[in-house]
Amino acid sequence: MSFGQLTKQLAKEALLDSLRPPDAAARSESLGTVAAPAASPPDNLAAILIAQVQAMQNGLKDDQELVVLCTAGPETLRVLEIFAPSKRLLVLTGIDSDRAVTRLISPVESLQLVCKTMSVQAGTKPARIRFITPKLPA
Question: How far from 50 is each of 53, 78, 104, 112, 133, CA to CA, in Å?
């Protein structure tokens, strides 16, 4: 078999393995043929979002605070706490425009936050966002 024919044969097998359902690819792997690599798991969007907000907050001076706003329907919420019960869901707790404590439960994919740094008045302690990320089983 020439080098060109060998290359064509390997490409054909790789293409066929990628088109087979996962259980068929596993069976072909046990028979000695090479299967396509498994897809990587999706990113943990909740952890990425929390890490970004934490990084912004950690970079603040002592007289600054990070204001995080989230608008859902007619409500605008100033976020004071971010809780991640899972990799795909966030619970935001904060204060709405009527100064009532409000919670927003949202899938991470549809959440939009506005983050801005603001100076606090002299003698006032800056507000800090609290992050709650329970240890999830792997």
Answer: 5, 16, 15, 12, 9
Token pair belonging to 2: 């020439």
36 and 62 share one domain: no
- Name which of 129, 107, 127 is nearest 119 in CA terms: 127
Q: What six digits make up the tokens of 117?
A: 């740094």
Judge whether 113 and 69 are in contact, CB under 8 Å: yes
Report d(CA 57, CA 125) in Å as an integer. 14
Of 102, 109, 107, the closest CA to residue 69 belongs to 102
Q: Which pLDDT tens digit goes with each residue over 27-54? A: 444 455 455 555 545 578 899 999 999 9
Residue 71 identity (one-letter amino acid): T
Look at the pTM and tell me if it is higher than 0.85: no
4: domain range?
1-40
Residue holding tokens 């060109």? 4
